[in-house]
Amino acid sequence: MKSFDFYSPTYFVFGRDRETDTGTYVKKFGGSRVMIVYGGQSAKRSGLLDKICASLQTDGLFSVELGGVKPNPRSGLVYEGIELARKENVDFILAVGGGSVIDTAKAIAMGTVYDGDFWDFFSGKVPEKALPVGTVLTIAASGSEGSPDAIITNEKTLDKTAAEADCLRPKFSIMDPALTESLSPYQTACGVTDIISHAFERYFTNTPDVETTDRLLEGIVLSMLHEGRRVMEDPHNYEARANIMWAGMVCHNDIMGADRQQDWNSHHLEHVLSALYDCTHGAGLAVIMPAWMDYCIEHSDGMRFAQMATRIFGCQMDYADPKRTARAGVEAFRGFLKSIGMPLSFEGIGADPNDIDRLVEMNNIGDGKTGGFVALDKAAIKQIYELAANKH
Q1: C-beta of residue 108 within 8 angstroms of C-beta of residue 132
Q2: Is 163 helix (H, G, I), strand (E, B) or coil?
Q3: pTM here?
Q4: DSSP states along 299-339
Q5: Which of 98, 205, 96, 220 minimizes the C-alpha distance to 151?
Q6: Residue 96 burial (CB < 10 Å; 0-12/13-18/19+)?
Q7: CB-based contact 316:325 (threshold 8 Å)
Q8: 364: alpha, beta or left, given left = phi > 0 and alpha = psi -120 to 50?
Q9: Which helix (DSSP H) or strand (DSSP E) does residue 95 occupy?
């Protein structure tokens, strides 16, 4: 195990109808003038925004709304939000939605109190302060409701990058699994895939002696295999959705990754896809992560992938040829993804194999290598995209 610091101060409010207490928690954490950030019209049509506004009003809180957040959130709305927050003297940002909404809220929160361009924080600068953020979660996927991270796409350059700082962890997150019942099966499956990928990005490590967090991560993936199938069979299965929602948070607040080297190459490769094609993040991960696994098995001893295969997917260990077991595990993973309606190749996300050279360059690694479980250079990245493009 590595030595580490772990800090996770978010106050979690979990269960049915807890969104009706939003005003209480905004007030508890010092908010008086609130910007509500949300996505499309579903939050309004469902009556969720009305419930939240009523709760804020009951607690005597001012609010102003900023809608229009899109999947793979863009820099333009962040600039708009910063301007509105300053104009209205906002002192609290409330995100009502999923990861894209929460990440936009976090970017507005750090940009509002900063004299320069908020994009500085997505170019390597670490924010030291931000307005407090709270969330009402409506999509279980990104884990942003409990994490110090935010990911935004620069509309001018198509760079899709992350900012990270403890000041970005939400002060509170309200988590009502029933709010996710209106999601389509595809959106739900994309969320399950994202959660699994967050587990695997931590699981594939070169850090030795991390059995405790290995087992925790394996448990998360096993629960997502089980609950993912249950929620596909019955979209109104509250208990399945509750387990998925809690797993999404636990998986990405980093309690299961603090003791180990992490990878994240699959996420970086996918961010380029979703920046260029605007595909759903979870769907892009379903295409990229198994292809990344295929590559890494052939460029490592394969033992960690064989461990995944035996412990998670129930494959028989071939001690004479561990890579055979590892490959069987990846195919079992693909089988699960297919069973919940996820794409497995470029065709399924509208990506063009003719763009692979461009995708490689968009990763911005120059002539160097990435870090991670297996270091990747340009040739490796190209090979992974080619595997992803052609797999069916």
Answers
A1: no
A2: strand
A3: 0.95
A4: TS--HHHHHHHHHTT-PPP-TT-HHHHHHHHHHHHHHHHHH
A5: 98
A6: buried
A7: yes
A8: left
A9: strand 92-97
**How far apart are the C-alpha atoms of 56 and 212, rounded to whole Å?**
42
Other C-beta atoms closer than 10 Å to the C-beta of 339 total 13
Cβ-based burial of 124 (10 A; exposed 0-12, middle 13-18, buried ≥19): exposed
CA–CA distance, 22 with 24 (Å, rounded to integer): 5
Question: Scanning the structure block, which residue is given the tokens 């935004």?
Answer: 152
Q: How far apart are CA 219 and CA 217, in angstroms?
A: 5
The radius of gyration of the chain from alpha carbons, rounded to an integer in Å, stands at 21
Over residues 265-305, the pLDDT tens digits come to: 999 999 999 999 999 999 999 999 999 999 999 999 999 99
Report the alpha-carbon distance of residue 312 to residue 221 in Å, rounded.
7
Nearest by Cα to 168 from 137, 126, 222, 198: 126
Half-sphere exposure of 373 (CA within 13 A, CB side): 26
Angle, nearest 10°, between helix axes 211-233 and 303-311?
Answer: 50
**Amino acid code (one letter) for 256:** M
pLDDT in tens, 351-380: 999 999 999 999 999 999 999 999 999 999
Instruction: Count CB-CB contacts under 10 A for residue 222.
Output: 15
Which residues, 6 or more positions from 38, have their beta carbon under 8 angstroms from its beta carbon? 49, 65, 66, 67, 69, 95, 96, 97, 101
